[in-house]
Request: fold
Amino acid sequence: MHNLTLGDELSMVQDTVRKLVQDVIEPAALEHDEHRRFHAGAFEALAETGLFGAAVAEDDGGAGLGLLSLVVACEELGRACGSSGRLFATQAGTAALSLAGLASAAEVLESVLTGEKLCAFVGPEHGVCAEVDGSGAKLSGFARYVTGAAEAGVVVVAASLGDGPVLCVVEPAAAEIAPQDQGLGFRASGPASVTLDGAAAQILASGDEAHAAIARAALATDVGAAALAAGSAFASVDLGRRHAGERIAFGKPLARQQAVGHKLVEGMRRAEAARQLVYQAARVADGGGDAARLAALARLTAVDAAVHAADESIQVHGGFGYTVEYHVERHYRDAKTLEVLDGGACAARDVLASSLGSGA
Amino acid sequence: MHNLTLGDELSMVQDTVRKLVQDVIEPAALEHDEHRRFHAGAFEALAETGLFGAAVAEDDGGAGLGLLSLVVACEELGRACGSSGRLFATQAGTAALSLAGLASAAEVLESVLTGEKLCAFVGPEHGVCAEVDGSGAKLSGFARYVTGAAEAGVVVVAASLGDGPVLCVVEPAAAEIAPQDQGLGFRASGPASVTLDGAAAQILASGDEAHAAIARAALATDVGAAALAAGSAFASVDLGRRHAGERIAFGKPLARQQAVGHKLVEGMRRAEAARQLVYQAARVADGGGDAARLAALARLTAVDAAVHAADESIQVHGGFGYTVEYHVERHYRDAKTLEVLDGGACAARDVLASSLGSGA
Amino acid sequence: MTDTLAGTTPQFVDFQLSETLTAFQAGCREFAESELAPHAAAWERNHEFPEEAIQKAARLGYLRITTPVEYGGTALGNLASCIMLEELNAACPAAGVTISVHNSLCCSLLANWGTEEQKRTYFPKLVSGEWLGAYCLSEAGSGSDAAALVCRARDDGDAWVLDGPKLWITTGSEAGLFLVFARTGEDRVKGISAFLVERGDPGVGIGKKERKLGLTASPTVEILLENVRIPKDRLLGEVGRGFNVALDTLDGGRLGIASQALGIARAAHDLIRDHLRTQVDAKGRSTAHQSAQWELADLAADIDACRLLTWRAAVLRDSKLPCGAKASMAKLKCSQLANRAARAAVSILGESGLAGPAEKLMRDARITEIYEGATDIQRLVIAREVLGG
Amino acid sequence: MTDTLAGTTPQFVDFQLSETLTAFQAGCREFAESELAPHAAAWERNHEFPEEAIQKAARLGYLRITTPVEYGGTALGNLASCIMLEELNAACPAAGVTISVHNSLCCSLLANWGTEEQKRTYFPKLVSGEWLGAYCLSEAGSGSDAAALVCRARDDGDAWVLDGPKLWITTGSEAGLFLVFARTGEDRVKGISAFLVERGDPGVGIGKKERKLGLTASPTVEILLENVRIPKDRLLGEVGRGFNVALDTLDGGRLGIASQALGIARAAHDLIRDHLRTQVDAKGRSTAHQSAQWELADLAADIDACRLLTWRAAVLRDSKLPCGAKASMAKLKCSQLANRAARAAVSILGESGLAGPAEKLMRDARITEIYEGATDIQRLVIAREVLGG
Reply:
């Protein structure tokens, strides 16, 4: 039904990702997650599709398909593998869109769009501080559970320099990167802590330009996360529905228990609400509007939906749901992780509360 | 922000309703509700705008603006006065759209579109039975809390005749109509019970034609209810925000309590999700797609949002919220009433559960 | 029923009420079912204060339950009070709150802070129900933030002169005695004193009556105090201790509303249960929707849990142990539950729930999360205790 | 600690534990904090069964708590068991479930259904911890619907021959004694019998080990039974009464998991509390987010309420009173609370909650809503009781 509103190009994006998911990503998702092993194959395959540039303007070397393309791709990835999805959202969304349009970032951007380098992004919520150092800067700060950092070829950092923001790029070797392989979710995404102890950095943007770049990153991060979570929520509902249709208890399929049906409906309801919000956020942004508020609402809605749908799907699965083979426990962990990353849901609510009145 | 996606005609609908709300409906909403008095002025003023035909095709004597026009109008009405909104949604949505396109209903339809007659609608959930009686039918059954029935000039009934559906029209005099003036919500909408004890009726449609007419009514009912509820949810958030901005407690505005801000954000989040769902449902329907599932999801989401937002807004208002002058208690009652009417949320979930798999 | 239960023999052993309390509970329920339940809807519809029923309650001793024996009370204590209030409120929350305010806000303060003369003067009228008590703390500008009150009490030599309106006074239009908190100094907290004001004192008037979502048979009014001149001996407690007097009511008041909420929740649960019991097939098996049965099960569990929370706090209070956070837990959880249960009753009863007892429960329940400390205030109390701050 | 508490003197008076139980609780907490808490994360990471700690627990008598005194048990009863399990599970749910299954599923069934000879044979090994007990009811096709089991027990003259795999057996790979439910007839319910199977019986094998979201230090395995030939006297109870034997574990098992969930919820609450306590300004005032403080307050109230529900059911069971619906209420509410509390801990601790004790609690908690009767099964039990069906 949703395809009614997707044009040819976005449908192609969807088809491309679906095929990749089917052939490369989904079959290996469980194994990489269970062994907390970076899913390099997924990243490489995604790089080959060229989709890291889908949302970037043509002038900046991208395909110019807007945030909607990020939404379409992330929803598909979120259905199958949160780790690959989170890597994609960071590379094609957060990193690519923050860098796009910055004259001094052209080289880094190209390595991001081609996938030559995996880009980790340290957001402003980590409070990294910059000091001017010659023509560059020195960065100090600490960030936990940074997606892809364990495997990064380049690290982009949103830092503050005095009162203002700066966007910097750091070589991984200049930072102390410690893989966090005991974490809750996105276990195949190479999460790591990043310690910056006077690390040498190149300043890509400062002042208004940095402010805008960081805002683009934040928007893309929220939209990507919301789409991943919406996809995850739909996947949890689908897994639950399939199990409930097959599993017989008390002489009939589980699905015919009203309580089971209602659980699945509630998951679907929330997933659909999240999807509509994230599509609207992307449409508004692509139309030139300010979509920050809608994107934040979409993310909150989608992450709640994903945690809820996975939780209920586990319950529908019974004991099976507690085991890794049925995938829903992975959705449960990844969804909850998405709630915490990038500053977390509480901070997002604070921001929305302070701007109450600008919306509606 | 939303107006970005409204065309000129829908913006005109919105402006018309807004003006009417401001001049006629809102100033009198509290009083009519409190005294459980039918809000005749609102109905007449709405009739004069010609908007009862907004969603009806031009061939059928309407303005051809589609369900989106119903959504736009109902959201505005829902912000101000649930009773007027519910009357409008029944007249311009449920009744008008069920009748539109039925050759034998042309006369009734005209009286509905002009507002010459207020039309009450007894939906299929009441299980009214029809028997053929000469060229017409006799109807037997009982329906509670039918919107507008106490003031109806005509009653349309979705009944069953043997195995199949029929759509009938009954003169109010042929039914036993008892005003229900002690009910929870929509107190100014003339709710009444309708007893049909072999009441003489004209059959407007039967078989597939009736099935389609009743499906149109159901879709319009859900879309209208969802839009009313979304509007109500936004209104509750707005009322709470205004109060929290003005009310000082412990030396600062209530709005600066994090818990208060988060309550309002959560209300806004749910309201926005509901709005996006109902707009999408209307867009899909207006594009010729099957929107029943989306409309049902939208209604569930919107009604939950409205009940929740009113509940939290009452809490933000403290003791003030428990009194009628602050309006939120009325939103609380009306929203909950909307959850129960037209078959109720539980039945909607049953239908969605039985069709799981057709969506997503 | 005249023996003092509190602090002597155990009231609650191995999760069973003592025999005395079990019998007391049965008596309360009988009164509620025969004298309140049949009339509650009509009182509500007509916005009619249930005066006669309150007088009957007085004759059964329900208006003297927190009053010491030496002043004509039964001093049954907090657990008995909670038991009684659950029963009364399950039938009629308007009567319930009237009695709760009378006992836990008015009589218990007089007992704890009054002079011997004040007690001898007022208790005879209060325990007999001749006078009902009202509690005048809130003002237009001070709700949760009670210390923000501005009503003035001026020392005029041989008298105090009180001036300034009080808002949201439960039973205000029906009461004979008002506990009034007024400002005797500038200090936000230490500038507040408490006074005993009689209905007949010149300058006392009834202002605006609130038009409310529910509890319409319990009048909530503005009390106008216009240069009300009262003798010096009407001061309750010491000058500047008014806020302490007010704080002294918190736990008892919260337990009263927790019990009210519990009664409402139970009534909603029973409505749902009775509705579902009618849904059986020819073999007597339930055909009730699973979703409705599950909701009923959840409510049953929560009602039991909330009752245990409430009774625990009451027993602690009867034992003179600190129970502030525990009373807040009871108020917090019971009031939320009452609202959830009443809304569930409306949903499950469907269109027949829109005009009948379910919708009244939903409207009545809503106030329990607001008065006697709104939900967030209860959370604040609990969080402070847990964090040790 | 060897005196029997159950059914003699009151255990719980005016919401206070008896002195004996208060001391017992302190002992359990000390053991949990010193012997379990420091190692729980490593056991979990390495999927390592905490064998040594379980042996220490055995030496403290924790594996004999439901066993009659005449067979070497302490027979402390259900309330004591709940107190103990809350403490152990707050530190290590893997150890907690091992001990819960051993006591409430294995030892209590042997006590209730075993012959004198069976008790004399097995209790010495069980109370000492030499053998751990496992409970083999579930199969691939029968979870909540236990009566759908297909594992066969064939009467072969002087022996029973058991055949068919059992799934999701807690402690299966570590146990010495298995209570096995198998089909001896076609009747869905009356065709089930219970048997005592030893780890060393030929044909008993350990199958697939489950890879789980949490509780990774508690092995959950398939138990393969391939033509396992056991003497006739290994039948537990009578032929065809197996389902009754299984039902007999319900209340005890549910109270065990309710207590496990309570321990997890409390651990999550304590994590949040300790985290927020670090957030103070220079004057020592809390700077913790209001939203986090409110969550903490809600959890504190719910934990108290859930504990009271659990203890009530345990005391009823100790008094040999019906407690089925009340045990289900405890299991229902505690398991939901454990999940909510653990998720809240992850949210409030933020990125530091993603890799540390909070996320482990979240993963461990999830099973409590599933095993020993999934949430909807508890609702079914309660609804039936309320509706009287």
Notes: Chain B has a mean pLDDT of 96. The domain at 119-210 of chain B is CATH 2.40.110.10 (Butyryl-CoA Dehydrogenase, subunit A; domain 2).
